[in-house]
Structure prediction request, 60 residues.
Amino acid sequence: MDVRVNDILTMKKPHPCGSSQWKVLRSGMDFRLKCLGCGHEVLVARAKAEKNIRQIQRPE
Prediction:
């Protein structure tokens, strides 16, 4: 799956704050994601994150 820095990912499950959209801050063997609802940042293994991605939006 081609995920790049600054992409907006829509995940299958929402974050506890209610938002299901995340911004990619770092890409590699794992992703650093920032919740667009509350600003919380998490480090997620690439394999786990790719299973939960519903949609990828590229910046223009």
Summary: Residues 46-52 form the longest helix (7 residues). The chain has one helix and five strands.
